Amino acid sequence: MGSDDSRERNRWEVIERKLGMLHRFIADLEPYGARSHDERRRDHYAVERLLQLLCESAADIGLQMLRARGERLASSYREVFAELRDRGDLPEELAEGLIDACAMRNLLTHLYDTVDLDRVARAVEPAVALYRRYAEWIEGEMGEGSPGAGSAREP
């Protein structure tokens, strides 16, 4: 029994750590929102990397949430958010936004096509808002399900 409690506590600690990283990536992306469209285009590599990190950390958190709940583990970013929507209570609009954001991550990471720098530049504010809402949802879930969950916000 003690081993199961310890394993569960460790899962929630991993989620808290990853949530702290998500908050850091949001904070790192946010200042780009104050820059001009042209400046964002010039800094597209930094913006692209932050968009990629946001998607990956959000999906990692989601995967850990599914694991902590004993749910079927998803095999793709799309499936992580669909499972959280279908098996958890991730709102439909938030799930769809995360699925779309991670589709953009796949485009950026795998270079399926030429990168639309205007699309990257326009993605900053929506991504900040989307991942903030997701972080708030995760924090709400942690308050309900985790043993002694604290705040994972980083300064």
Please describe the topology of this protein:
Elements: H1 2-29, H2 37-42, H3 44-68, H4 77-87, H5 92-110, H6 117-122, H7 124-145
Helix pairs in contact: 1-3, 1-7, 3-4, 3-5, 3-7, 4-5, 5-7
N→C terminal distance = 36 Å
Oligomer: single chain
Order of helices and strands: HHHHHHH
Taken as a percent bin, the fraction of beta residues is under 5%
| Mean of all residue-level pLDDT scores | 86
- Overall shape: it is elongated
Helix content: over 70%
- The beta-strand count equals 0
Task: Report Rg.
Answer: 16 Å
Low-confidence stretches: 147-155
Given helix and strand content, the structural type is: mainly alpha
The profile of the biggest β sheet is: none
Output the number of helix runs: 7
Defining traits:
single chain, 155 residues, mainly alpha, 7 helices, 75% helix, 0% strand, disordered C terminus
What's this entry about, in short?
The protein is mostly helical.
Could you characterize what this model shows?
The protein has 155 residues and is mainly α. It has seven helices and no strands. It has helices at 2-29, 37-42, 44-68, 77-87, 92-110, 117-122, 124-145. Helix 3 (44-68) packs parallel to helix 7. The longest helix has 28 residues, at 2-29. The protein is elongated. Mean pLDDT is 86; it is low at 147-155.
